[in-house]
Every structure is written in C-alpha cells, then in structure tokens.
C-alpha cells in the first residue's frame, strides 16, 4: 500500500516526516478532510474572526497530489 504524507499549514507549516499508509488516494483524501475539520473545530473559537487551514497530501516522493483547504470567516451582523 502507498504511503502518503500530510503537511499542515495553519499560519505555520507542520511537515509530516512519518506519513501514513492508505489503500488509495481517495482514502488519504478522506483522512485529510477528517483531520482538517478536527483541527478547525479545536482552533476556531480561539483564532478570531477568520482562519485558513490546509493540508497538502504528498506521495512517497514528496510530490503534491492534492490540497485540502478550509477558509473560515465571520462578520458581525450590521
């Protein structure tokens, strides 16, 4: 099974040096989405009115396969 690496960007970059094994890119994508929503749920209340998070999914050669991105913004009602 292929190994995928998940580099996280949340204002600072977190490089995944270990990776994880998944049967398909689709499975790795699902894991990236799950991880991104988990990170967002932990950080949204503390990070003010806007935030952008992303996870780059890379193959064993560190080639970018896909990017999962989440942007959050809240505006007060006028």
Protein architecture, described:
The chain has 78 residues and is of the alpha+beta class. The chain has one domain. It is 24% helix and 38% strand. The chain is built from 1 helix and 5 strands, in the order βββαββ. Strands 1, 2, 3, 4 and 5 form a 5-stranded antiparallel β-sheet that branches. A hairpin with a 5-residue loop joins strand 4 and strand 5. It is elongated. The relative contact order is 0.25. The model has no long low-confidence stretch (mean pLDDT 89).
The helix/strand series, from N terminus to C terminus, equals: EEEHEE
Largest sheet, strands/sense/barrel = 5 strands, antiparallel
Strands, total number? 5
Give the DSSP E fraction (strand runs of 2 or more residues): 35-45%
General form: elongated
Report the uncertain regions: none
Into how many domains do the coordinates divide? 1
Helices and strands in order, then pairings?
Elements: E1 3-9, E2 13-14, E3 20-21, H1 25-43, E4 50-58, E5 64-73
Antiparallel strand pairs: 1-2, 1-3, 1-4, 4-5
Primary descriptors:
78 residues; alpha+beta; five-stranded antiparallel beta sheet; 1 helix
How would you summarize what this structure contains?
The protein is 24% helix and 38% strand.
